[in-house]
Amino acid sequence: MRRRTFVRSSLFAMTAPALARHQGTNPLFREAPRFPQDLSALTGDGKRITLTGKAIADLRASLRGPVLLAGNDGYEQARQILNPSFNKHPALIAQPTGAADIRTAVNFARDNGGLLLAVKCGGHSHSGQSTCDGGMVIDLSRFRNVWVDPAARRARVTGGTLLGQVDHETMAHGLVTTMGTVSHTGAGGLVTGGGFGRLGRRYGLSIDNLISADVVTADGELRRASAEENPDLFWGIRGGGGNFGIVTSFEFRLHPMQRRVVGGIMAFPFARARDILDVYAEVGQKGPDELEVGFMFMRPPGGAPAVAAIAVCYCGLEANAERALAPIRKLGTPISDQVRAIDYVALQKSGDVDDPRATGTYLKSGFIADMPAGLASAIIDGLEGDPARQTQVFSQLSGGAINRVAPDATAFAQRDIMGNLLSSVGWKQGDDPTEHIKWIKQYWARIEPFTRGFYVNDLETDHTNSAVSANYRSNHNRLVTIKNKYDPRNLFRLNANVKPTV
Fold first, then answer.
1. Global confidence as pTM
2. Is the confidence at residue 44, as pLDDT, over 50?
3. Residues 7 and 121 in one domain
């Protein structure tokens, strides 16, 4: 026997017992996992089907990210969204780590009867569209990254990335693009719906700064969407929401901007509410593009005094800030004044805890073109308090660069609006919400005649198909054509849904 063979055989004889003991803990020696149990699941059209354990095991084996079932570590957290009113239990949750995983998950949902499919980025869907009962959730929380090219002034952002990550990375280079007002919002949902933010009047909506996107459509294909490639898909994802697929990557145009802005909130007695609405309208009509304002009126529970506040962000030169803020300063001395020079990224995080869309549990919304006396009266006079609920109405200004884009240039058609008006009601979790929801519907009925359409990212829980169609205005027929091409079986239906006709 040659010496090398002898040594190798001897070593094996000495280590074999240890290897045998180690097989239970070393992944190289584990037995193939047993198949999970068969699962009952729902399709998008409500049919009950069975997902076999083998099919689920095959899905797990083909993804780099996990597939979570009820009882698995992480399932309880992954099934939840920000609005605590929703307590849904998906049959399974896939957590992709890249575009390949997303394609596999989409193929699985389509090929298994057209599973009811929800897509979750930041979990901010106030109407619960980013989760579901009995279907499949594709949770993009493991797919978050930002790459910045400062020379080209471009940023590439993966589909599950949160807005705060985008602001953090781009502002490090003295560059920005329009993102929303709550930093833990997911980019995928915000951008495809339009993308309002503090910089919108200066730089346009998020979609107005979108150069290209990679999209996994219902057939599982990864398509590049831009002005040159699949331009119809590019047009559709800019305001058409999640109707056409899952965006795996966004490419944004960036703009140079100083890091410090002037921003914050001024609070006044509720008696000044009408004056605040007058200032809101004045800035909307005459204010510079660099000035963004919003108002918020709130009646807290328990009989505490009502609050009337105005939020400010001036992103121009700091030396010009006070001149731009002059209409607001005419309101006089506030109860509290937090408006100051502040780091832009810090201002972007300032609403993370108390943003009404994050804390309210039922929401009504609509776009407004102006602030007539009748609308002001409906907003102020009808805002009643209640010991058991928090009621509020608020709006973010539009205008500027947002309005200078043609209504048919993107799927987002509401280009002539002055602002987005919302009202929400919140109650203690566990309480019966019936009376609270009844009240806000009655309150909104007085406001609604002054509105037209709505922001699809603020989709109401009980929205109607006709309201969705009317919201897209003259762009709706074109959206249906694109839906017929890329998602003819309506796999992506948990959104402001454009229904296919084929």
1. 0.91
2. yes
3. no
